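This follows on from our talk about sequence and fold. Please put the record directly below this note.
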Amino acid sequence: MKLVLGLGLSGKASARFLVKQGEEVTVYDDDQKTYSQVPGVHYLEQGKPFDWTSCEQVIVSPGVPPSHPLYQGALERKIEVIGEVELALRYLTHRHLVGITGTNGKTTVTLLVAHLLEEAGKKARAVGNVGTPLIDEVYHPDQEAILSLELSSFQLERVHTKSLLGSTILNVTPDHIDRYPDMQAYAKAKGQIATIMQKGAPLLLNPSIKSLTPELFEKEHRLLPTTSREDENIAAAVALAKVFGLTDSQIEKGLSTFKKPPHRIELIRNLKGVNYYNDSKSTNLDSTIHALLTLGNNILLIAGGVDKGFSFAPWADYFPNRVKGLFLIGQAAHRIESELKESVQVFQCGTLKEALLLSTTLATPGDNILLSPGCSSFDQFKNYADRGDTFRQWVEEL
């Protein structure tokens, strides 16, 4: 019997796959409203003890922390614990894959790699943390496509199978301090991508992470440029695409036709001389800093959301002559104010709608209203895309 722990996107996909394989499957999620969405499985009720006697493997969803009692129960009994990605890799040994991880930019690079390959006439798909579970590829009707695989640190915690023909760690900046005890532990999880590469496959590293992951720099690797995040992203995508023989002219054509995915410093509209930007994908400190540096000045910043445990104090270095006002929302709002109230005028807004309306009232021609939360969205929205789509809709209705 297999236990699937957590019924997020990858957990549901894992359960469906195992049922299709003819396995006996038990599923558990703290949110039991998800149970009806997976047919053909046994549901473990909350608070009911689990019978471990016939359990031979646990497939854990990325959002389930190692501290979860069932996760710990499996480890104590020396039952194998893997994630959906590792489950998939064991069935995809015949496929061509490259892997992308990093705190920021990994979705863009994952999509760009697939785009470059497709523009060059090759079949390719972006999968993994970008939205499509890797396990769905096992039964995909097209088995020829190259897979550009986005991997989060959570997904990389339980991977073993050497599969990748190339990989990159774009960067490691403060994030998920609510899950990892320190930055070294977070970086170590990212570094797991190097353990699932085929022999001789190129490993592309950002030089800035050497102090966090010195062991990776003892192995054969290539360094990404450090001039800007855009340059890093393009260099990583080009190098991974060239694994499959793309020429410079094919690369240039693909770069010229690529459109950056939404929710990344996306200009929604100009209304009465005020620009409105959606950077909802910003879920950590560094991504907000990047947005501030990109826009330059006259910024009314909307920030806040789920508190991941890191300090927001570093933002203060980037506020002078850039940020005219800070409009705070969500769970982290009061802590952000306590750390930054000496460096910028702060407005406690509570909700995104209130922050938008107040910033619009106070803005003058030439200002930039920027949603770049620096936090996760789950306190008020389904995910960052839901947050960004909602913000865009409200802005368009102004």
